[in-house]
Design goal:
Layout: E1 14-15, E2 18-19, H1 29-44, H2 51-212, H3 218-273, H4 276-298, H5 304-317, H6 327-335, H7 338-351, H8 355-363, H9 365-369, E3 381-384, H10 390-404, E4 412-415
Parallel strand pairs: 3-4
Antiparallel strand pairs: 1-2
Helix pairs in contact: 2-3, 4-5, 5-6, 5-10, 7-10, 8-10
Length: 424
């Protein structure tokens, strides 16, 4: 139950037996007790309650209610004081807890900052060490690069010296071959002159015999003439194969001389027109190809299969085919070129074959070359007639002739079956 601090004054009167409530309509304990008493008095027909008696009781009840409200207010103030003191204590405790946590966080932060500073110092020291190592590596790399450049210059000079020696050897070989052919021609001429002299001497002897044996019979003369004609015929028959062989050797020698002249002319003109960087690149390509050839010999792949792989590698280095081409695709791209087509036309005409059949054999050439790995001498790629069909051999020869016109070619030769004696 709650009471107001300020009680308004009100007058209570009893008229015609009814009780009028206060103006603010406060329901106090006296009111609740007084109403049933008034009602009971009215029912009994007794005297109405007097004003004095009612005022006294009302004042007494108001004093009690005022005292009670003061006690309640005092209790409320004590509770509020206790509650505020508890709140202040709690807030002060929370503030102390927060302050302690803040101090702990500050200590942790200082420890972390010290740890980070040490880590930064260590990382900075590591960075300085790495930087020093990098500088040392850069210096070593520059030294190696200078050494490599000097080595490349020396190797290029050696290559030029080898090229000059090769040219001198070619000139000497041409001179020797020319001298050899001249000597062979002179020997043949001397043999012919000697045979002519011999025939003349024989003719003179026959004439003398004819003059001396005029008395002999005609049969003996005819017999001697027949013997002489037979001997002369046999001599000429013996000379015909030698002359034919000499003519064939002479033609082969002329063809070889022309090919060497063309190659030397290309080398001389090409090397004189190329820049030093291009010549150095060609020298590097030749060195790489020589290394590949040595590896082929060590791996036992110095044969037709290894030659086809080396041809594709060299074509990739020189930019004749795409750099990502595999062996079969690279061979197809080479076959589409004009150089291969020209060589193929000449080989087909010389061997009396059909170009369509040769190209069909060309498609399966690399696969079949894996099975023909024998018959080489370790220095020359040998294309044997007994190991290849005619169309396959023609296709392989076309590729080998094509690479012969490139720098640093592989040495190769074609071996044919020896025809029986007497065959033309």
């Amino acid at each position: 139950m709650s009471f107001s601090k300020f009680l308004a004054r009100s007058t209570t009167a009893v008229r015609t037996g009814t009780f009028r409530y206060p103006a603010n309509r406060m329901h106090t304990s006296i009111n609740r007790c007084l109403r049933p008493a008034i009602s009971h008095a009215q029912q009994r027909g007794g005297l109405p309650i007097t004003i004095l008696r009612h005022s006294t009781s009302l004042l007494r009840s108001e004093a009690k209610s005022l005292k009670h409200s003061r006690e309640q207010h005092a209790g409320f103030r004590e509770q509020e004081a206790i509650h505020s003191h508890d709140q202040q204590a709690n807030s002060f405790q929370q503030f102390e807890d927060q302050l302690n946590r803040y101090k702990e966080q500050q200590a942790q932060f200082r420890e972390q900052e010290a740890t980070h500073s040490r880590e930064h110092a260590i990382s900075f020291q590591n960075f300085e060490d790495q930087l020093n190592r990098y500088k040392e590596q850069q210096a070593q790399f520059r030294e190696q690069e200078a050494t490599h450049s000097r080595e490349h210059a020396i190797s290029f000079q050696n290559f030029e010296d080898q090229l000059n020696r090769y040219r001198e050897q070619q000139a000497q070989s041409r001179e020797q071959e020319t001298l050899g052919s001249q000597k062979q021609q002179e020997t043949l001429d001397s043999q012919k002159q000697q045979e002519t002299l011999d025939s003349q001497e024989q003719q003179e002897t026959l004439d003398s015999q004819k003059q001396q044996v005029t008395l002999r019979s005609q049969k003996q003369l005819a017999r001697s003439l027949e013997q002489f004609e037979g001997k002369l015929k046999r001599n000429w028959e013996q000379q015909d194969p030698l002359l034919k062989q000499f003519q064939e050797l002479k033609q082969q020698f002329q063809m070889r001389v022309e090919q060497k002249n063309i190659q030397n002319h290309k080398l001389l003109v090409g090397s004189s027109l190329l820049s030093p960087s291009t010549r150095f690149l060609i020298f590097q390509q030749c060195a790489a190809l020589e290394e590949r050839t040595k590896r082929m010999k060590l791996e036992g792949r110095y044969n037709a299969c290894g030659a086809l792989e080396r041809i594709v590698d060299q074509a990739i280095l020189e930019g004749k085919i795409s750099p990502t081409a595999i062996i079969t695709k690279g061979l197809r791209e080479l076959a589409e070129g004009r150089e291969f087509t020209n060589i193929l036309e000449l080989e087909v005409k010389a061997r009396k074959l059909y170009d369509r059949q040769v190209m069909e054999a060309f498609e399966d050439l690399y696969r079949k070359s894996k099975y023909n790995v024998y018959g080489n001498d370790g220095a020359t790629i040998i294309v044997s007639e007994t190991s290849w069909m005619d169309n396959e051999r023609a296709a392989l020869v076309c590729l080998l002739k094509l690479q012969s016109s490139w720098p640093c070619p592989l040495p190769w030769k074609e071996e044919l079956r020896e025809s029986p004696k007497g065959d033309k």
